[in-house]
Amino acid sequence: MHDVVIVGAGPTGLMAACELALAGVSCTILDKRDSESNVTRAFGLHARALELLDARGMGDELVAGGNPLRTVYPAYASRVDFGRLDTRYPMLLLVPQNGTEKLLQQRAAELGVQIRRNARVVGLGLEFAYPPGEPDAHPLAGRRAADGPTDTGRLYEVLRAGTFVLLSDKGVPTSWRNRVRAARPLDGTRPEATLIRPDGYVAWAGDHAGIEAALVKWCGPADHPNGEGNHAAA
Ligand SMILES: Cc1cc2nc3c(=O)[nH]c(=O)nc-3n(C[C@H](O)[C@H](O)[C@H](O)COP(=O)(O)OP(=O)(O)OC[C@H]3O[C@@H](n4cnc5c(N)ncnc54)[C@H](O)[C@@H]3O)c2cc1C
Fold first, then answer.
1. Bigger pLDDT: 19 or 144?
2. Rounded to whole angstroms, how far apart are CA atoms 123 and 25?
3. Is the CB of residue 204 less than 8 Å from the CB of residue 217?
4. Predicted pLDDT of residue 196
5. How many CA atoms lie within 13 A of 91 on its CB side?
6. Helix (H, G, I), strand (E, B) or coil at 223
7. Which residue, judged by its Cα, is nearest atom 2 of ligand 1?
């Protein structure tokens, strides 16, 4: 079990993983490719990128394996002189992207980052299980809600509205519609429903029989008692 899962073992994902690992956050990277990349897209590294990599002890190693250009002539009679830059790396370094990735992968491995290949991410969702013998308790209670996709947009966009959000495939009971918004999980087969407070914490989760009690507890009495129990889709 890791604190963070990163999708994509390109330069961005690898660098983010190294930074997280340095901060003591465990992470794993998932990449859909079954092997390391052999493509060269980013082949030119500028001074600032090299300075940032240097801050993590990787600048000199990259320079040693690349081809530094001090001057380039982008068009007729024009000249860009990188050698005049006030930096440890006054150059444009030509190095294939997979070379940069190899170095970052090596560093990530040293820091304990796991890279799983042939692992295509197809979606995000909430996963939870009830503790044995405690059907009313929930392990997500009090934790920040996961940022999962819904068919009404990403969950955090719904949360940002500052209202209660019921994550459920049945929608919000009509009597609470003024105060509670609905977000439907992509996987509509789950029987569980989750009520998320405006501050992003999961306030309650359980089956639909418990929705009314949870709504009363967290949102107050129903606006229209006649609508109670109606789980019409919002
Ligand atoms: C033709 C071209 C030339 C370029 N030249 C330069 C240059 O000279 N200098 C420069 O600085 N930049 C250049 N760039 C840009 C550079 O390639 C990108 O900025 C860089 O690759 C971005 O890194 P990244 O890690 O964000 O994404 P990527 O390198 O694209 O890596 C994304 C990774 O995520 C994985 N992935 C994607 N979807 C999923 C999924 N659903 N599940 C699991 N894994 C997934 C992919 O397999 C891939 O390994 C160029 C780009 C192109 C296209």
1. 19
2. 23
3. yes
4. 80
5. 19
6. coil
7. 41
Q: Which of 170, 165, 197, 192 is nearest to 181 (CA)?
A: 165
**Count of helix runs (H) and strand runs (E) in the chain:** 6, 14
The model's pLDDT over 147-178, given as tens digits with 9 standing for 90+, comes to 555 655 556 556 666 678 888 777 788 888 88
Mutate to test the pocket of ligand 1, among 50, 97, 117 (most ligand atoms within 8 A of CB): 97
Q: What is the mean pLDDT of the chain?
A: 79
Query: CB of 7 closer than 6 A to ligand 1?
Result: yes
How many A from CA of 92 to the centre of ligand 1?
19
Q: Angle at CA 126, nearest 5°, toward 149 and 189? A: 85
- Going from the N-terminus, what domains does the chain have, and what CATH number goes with each? 1-38+98-122 (3.50.50.60), 44-95 (no CATH), 149-227 (3.40.30.120)
Is the pTM higher than 0.70? The answer reads no
